[in-house]
């Protein structure tokens, strides 16, 4: 009797294993969403709506190659605002969103593929300025430029600092090189990319005060097969140097 029970259990587990490895339907297709967040993802024409080839950026290129290698079809749309895209991905199976910052609070809400890229919050000084600070508290004695209502600016304010906020982060490049601010608080490598667009390079990273990783966040009801194939493809691309190559091409 015990032997028959064990056989039954083994049979059930075998069926479960086969189901877990089952191929996706031939017509399976994912819906990918993103926003303007240069240099990781952005509309070619700088608008707040774009589709497929109208979208470029480091992570957009990585995600395209990842899906190609995993042999999974998709549609790609860039929209605004982020809040709407986030809610759609939470609610709809086979939807995915990038570039999503991974946090412990979000971990259980999605399935994750990544990291696609690493980011950090930094204080930048103008080229040739060898200013040094060891903490945000020390930095408070200087004039710091930031981006209004950005997470970086909000963090500085929560620490008792009073950043001079610009309506567009690009404005801080000229403020920094023109001496109107001593330090620029921004996200790396976003700040370096924006500076490059303004013809400025060689910025000095004075302080790095937060680290984060960007992922492809996938609706929880999406098959595990999708997640596994995409992660395998991404790992292969990283090992082959594709990720570094793509990052360097934009920065």
TrEMBL record:
**Xref: InterPro entries:** Solute-binding_3/MltF_N (IPR001638)
Signal peptide annotation: 1-22
Where the record annotates domain Solute-binding protein family 3/N-terminal, the positions are 33-250
Q: Which Pfam families match?
A: SBP_bac_3
The UniProt keywords, alphabetically, are: Signal
**What PANTHER family does the entry give?**
PERIPLASMIC SUBSTRATE BINDING PROTEIN FAMILY 3 (PTHR38834), SOLUTE-BINDING PROTEIN FAMILY 3_N-TERMINAL DOMAIN-CONTAINING PROTEIN (PTHR38834:SF3)
Recorded protein name is Transporter substrate-binding domain-containing protein
Q: What is the lineage of its organism?
A: Bacteria, Pseudomonadati, Pseudomonadota, Gammaproteobacteria, Pseudomonadales
């Amino acid at each position: 009797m015990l032997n028959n029970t064990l056989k039954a259990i083994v049979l059930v587990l075998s069926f479960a294993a086969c189901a877990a490895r089952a191929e996706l339907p031939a017509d399976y297709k994912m819906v990918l969403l993103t926003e303007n967040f240069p240099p990781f993802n952005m509309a070619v024409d700088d608008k707040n709506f774009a589709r497929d080839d109208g979208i470029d950026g480091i992570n957009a290129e990585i995600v395209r190659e990842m899906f190609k290698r995993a042999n999974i079809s998709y549609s790609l749309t860039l929209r605004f605002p982020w809040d709407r895209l986030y809610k759609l991905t939470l609610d709809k199976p086979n939807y995915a969103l990038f570039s999503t910052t991974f946090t412990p609070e979000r971990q259980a809400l999605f399935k994750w593929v990544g990291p696609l890229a690493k980011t950090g919050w930094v204080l930048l000084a103008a080229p040739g300025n060898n200013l040094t600070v060891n903490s945000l508290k020390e930095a408070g004695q200087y004039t710091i430029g930031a981006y209004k209502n950005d997470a970086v600016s909000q963090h500085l304010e929560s620490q008792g600092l009073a950043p001079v906020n610009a309506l567009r982060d690009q404005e801080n490049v000229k403020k920094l090189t023109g001496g109107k601010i001593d330090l620029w608080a921004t996200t790396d490598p976003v700040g370096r990319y924006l500076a490059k667009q303004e013809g400025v390079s060689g910025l000095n990273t004075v302080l790095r005060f937060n680290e984060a990783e960007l992922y492809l966040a996938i609706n929880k009801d999406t098959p595990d097969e999708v997640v596994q194939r995409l992660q395998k493809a991404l790992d292969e691309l990283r090992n082959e140097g594709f990720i570094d190559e793509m990052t360097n091409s934009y920065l």
